[in-house]
Specification:
Blueprint: H1 2-11, H2 21-33, H3 39-72, H4 80-101, H5 105-117, H6 122-147, H7 151-182
Helix pairs in contact: 1-2, 1-3, 2-3, 2-6, 3-5, 3-6, 4-5, 4-6
């Protein structure tokens, strides 16, 4: 049950910054390798928790995100022009952002919320969420399962890889926003 909650809360808008869902998922795999948990239920809990958490994040963004961002976003640098660019990003690449964001800590916590706030089509979100959450759950549970007792080493390296990928994703987004700002709007 803790595995399900950790995977769910990690994706539920802003809680991902506080809940170590990825670490708990790896630990679940380690415990399965020692026979304490069974592998199939561990995979099921991780994947289901990730899907549910992403959906909670999406609906929070859909219901609360946009009005809050329009009213208070200027305090965190989210002005109307920035919101329009985020909307454009999710209109063109939302599925990829949800799918890839599942593997990058910061984006895992924010992509579902941003998708909902940007009014991304729910069907597109659900498909990409299910694919990303399933791949994420399988990868991290099996990582823990196959690495067994050496999971702290794997977690440290994955954290570094996630940091590098997250930095690259942020830089790519900033470059995209800068280019979008310079180019005339499409009509």
């Amino acid at each position: 049950m803790l595995l399900f909650l950790a995977a769910a809360l990690e994706s539920a808008a802003f809680l991902g910054f506080l809940v170590p869902g990825e670490t708990i998922t790896i630990i679940g795999g380690v415990l399965a390798s020692f026979g304490i948990f069974r592998l199939t239920p561990t995979l099921t809990l991780a994947i289901t928790g990730a899907i549910v958490g992403d959906n909670v994040g999406y609906w929070l963004g859909r219901r609360l995100g946009r009005p809050w961002l329009e009213q208070h976003g200027h305090r965190i640098g989210m002005r109307a022009d920035m919101l329009a660019r985020v909307d454009a990003l999710f209109a063109r690449h939302g599925g990829k952002a949800v799918l890839v964001g599942r593997f990058i800590g910061f984006l895992r916590a924010m992509a579902p919320f941003a998708a909902g706030a940007s009014r991304m089509h729910y069907g597109t979100f659900v498909i990409n969420n299910a694919i990303g959450a399933t791949a994420w759950g399988i990868f991290f549970v099996l990582l823990g399962y196959f690495l067994g007792a050496s999971w702290p080493i794997a977690e440290r390296w994955l954290g570094r890889v996630g940091l590098v990928l997250g930095t690259l994703a942020i830089l790519a987004t900033l470059i995209w926003f800068k280019r979008a700002k310079k180019s005339p709007p499409h009509r």
